[in-house]
Write a structure and sequence with these properties.
CATH superfamily of the largest domain: Bira Bifunctional Protein, Domain 2
Order of helices and strands: EHEEHEEEEHHHEEEEE
Helix content: 10-25%
Largest sheet: 7 strands, mixed
Low-confidence stretches: none
Number of strands: 12
Strand order of the largest sheet: 1-2-3-7-6-5-4
CATH architecture of the largest domain: 2-Layer Sandwich
Number of domains: 2
Strand content: 25-35%
Mean pLDDT: 93
Shape: globular
Radius of gyration: 18 Å
Distance between the termini: 45 Å
Length: about 240
């Protein structure tokens, strides 16, 4: 049975809210919360997630994976990214995944994912999956010029409760069936749906800019690029950036 989402008026962050709980015993998907406002919303690696109160989906889910090794924790990130991509593709075209797990519409960011894993021995014992999805916000601060919302794209104002519950149900159904047997298929689908998947594009690392194409994803979620000089490059998060 899928536990319903608890809706909060305001919290520091939905991930932190779940971290502070002592949840009842569960398997698969457990407690889920969504907030109208976050005072300390977080993104990847300490970044801040900015959101206009009452306009967007700010959601977190407690999840217990089924025997997923810690070394394969990126499988969860890939799966959630693909779920979001598929979910948004019901409303608009041109949705892709910008490595490692931002969701883009064309060249604009519509959603971000923050996953915090706990490890017991060699396995992931629990994950907190946080999702920020821009839904009804029409204007964004100057410091996030690449942001866009579902309403910006479609011209429609959405019911946040309905949309959140639909996303929650979709996540729980797919995640309840996630196991290591799905690793190869998930990796293939993930790579095929990446932002700038085809052709050579401009990137930058600590040594400067270069043109490269995506050629794969490493076992730890590292981005594998092949530059124009046929050099194979591997990057972890924040070691390389996409250039315009």
């Amino acid at each position: 049975m899928i536990e319903p989402v608890e809706f909060l008026d305001c919290t520091t962050s939905t991930n932190q809210y779940l971290t502070n709980l002592t949840p009842k015993a569960f398997s698969g998907c457990g407690k889920a919360v969504a907030a109208l406002n976050q005072t300390e919303g977080r993104g990847q690696r300490g970044n801040t997630w900015l959101s206009e109160p009452g306009r967007n989906i700010l959601y977190s889910l407690l999840y217990k994976p089924n025997d997923i090794p810690a070394r394969n924790q990126f499988l969860i990130s890939q799966t959630v990214s693909l779920i979001l991509k598929s979910f948004l593709s019901e409303y608009t075209k041109d949705i892709t995944i910008k490595w490692p797990n931002d969701i883009y519409w064309k060249n604009k960011k519509i959603a971000g994912i923050l996953i915090e894993n706990q490890v017991s021995g060699s396995l992931i014992s629990q994950s907190i999956i946080g999702i920020g999805l821009n839904v009804n916000q029409l204007d964004f601060p100057a410091e996030i010029p690449d942001a866009i919302s579902l309403s910006n794209i479609t011209g429609t104002i959405f019911d946040l409760h309905v949309l959140t519950n639909k996303l929650h149900h979709t996540l729980c159904v797919v995640l309840s069936e996630l196991n290591m047997e799905k690793l190869e298929d998930t990796q293939r689908f993930y790579i095929n749906n990446l932002y700038r998947r085809d052709g050579f594009h401009q990137y930058a690392d600590k040594d400067g800019t270069f043109k490269a194409r995506v050629c794969g994803i490493g076992p730890q979620g590292n981005l594998m690029l092949e530059s124009e000089d046929n050099r194979l490059r591997s990057y972890h998060f924040k070691e390389v950036r996409f250039c315009e």
